[in-house]
Amino acid sequence: MLARIRRRLAVDDGISLVEMIVAIGLVAVVLLALMSSTITALAAIRGNERQVRATALVNEVLENLQALDFEQAGLYDAEVASHFGPTVTEFEGEDLVILADQPTRDPLVPYPAGVLSGGAPVNPVPRDGVDYDVETVVTWVDEAADGVGAADADGPKDIKRFVAMVTWEHNGAPRTLRTEALRAPTPDDKRLTTVIEPDRIAITDPPDGRNIDAFTVRAFTRERARSDTLPFPLRGGGTFPVGMSPSADSRTWTYTLNAVAHQFANGEALFTVAAVELDGETVTATDRALFLHTLDLDDEDIVTSRDPLAVVRDPRQSCPFELTLEVQGAVTSDSVRVRWSPEPADERAVPVLEPTVSGARFRLAYNDPDDPFEPGDATLTVTVVRGVDGTTLTVQQEYEIEEVESCAVTP
Questions:
Q1: What is the domain count for the chain?
Q2: How far is CA 274 from the centre of its chain?
Q3: Which pTM does this prediction carry?
Q4: CA neighbor of 298 nearest in space, from 354, 359, 342
Q5: Which helix (H) or strand (E) holds 58?
Q6: 228 by DSSP, 3-state: which?
Q7: What is the pLDDT of residue 228?
Q8: What is the spatial distance between Cα 316 and Cα 366, in angstroms, rounded to a whole number?
Q9: 73 and 158: one domain?
Q10: What are phi and psi of 284, to 5 degrees?
């Protein structure tokens, strides 16, 4: 009995070598998993720390850009050529703000790459053992509300876009952080501003545009100026420069025009004032005013390319023609619509063709054989609506529609 108990105790005493190896393997697997999770967590923490530093750096660069004087917010020509390329003038479809190179560099003007440190660019920027590459871009943005691109009174360069980008490496892969902001110039930012009062001026003498309502052009210079010149755009082309009268402090300049001094064409006119500051530098500013004749459309200003108008007898179809309207006092953005009665009765918009010195020319082609006129008397009704003030002009003209065998035969 005792011998059997001893044999059983001998068998159950301790663990086998195989069991020990399996146990060690399980512990190793658990430790490796924990180590991998720890390494991943540490890498994520390092990545987040670098992201935080990059965010602080890119915001610092953007804040420095926004703090600049509006005229300093740009990039020097030579540095743009060196960084972007000798022929590059745009960034993402927008014009770069390129400043003329100066004999002595303004230390506040940003560099395309790097941040300023004692007047010199630092790039890459070291932060806690990590190098950050910084790129600065300044572009022009068009303010859509003031016109259409280059047709604006002040062109498409209205607002500046500041773009700051920071690039760094994490786990062998590049990362980039970008931020941007828009800045419109305030009156204090501009060295020269202009005001035209009123900015809509009536022309009361249609033949030559001499008699106009009085208006005043005022120019305001940030610094004292020795002279301000205002070239008036003339009806027949070209300009006529006049000198403006200064205030006591030579910062406000005025010129009032009334009656018959100059001839103006119907439509928008641009006025570019040039001010010469005391240091001899010339600054310019452009404003615009709208000169308008009274809306009018005489019988002789309604022209059809076929006279008289005609329809083919069989099969019934209208002979094609063009309708041209020269509307005095209209501009190219005004609405012109026509309707024939009794047939065809649908109202049609007349596309603008071109501006004229007294208004605008509109033209509509009629060449739809499936929408024929009827022989006999027809009435054309023309409706013009001026976009700037809603003034409406309605004119009617009578026509006789002839019946012909062929459109090639003139009745």
A1: 3
A2: 24
A3: 0.61
A4: 359
A5: helix 17-66
A6: strand
A7: 85
A8: 15
A9: yes
A10: -130, 155
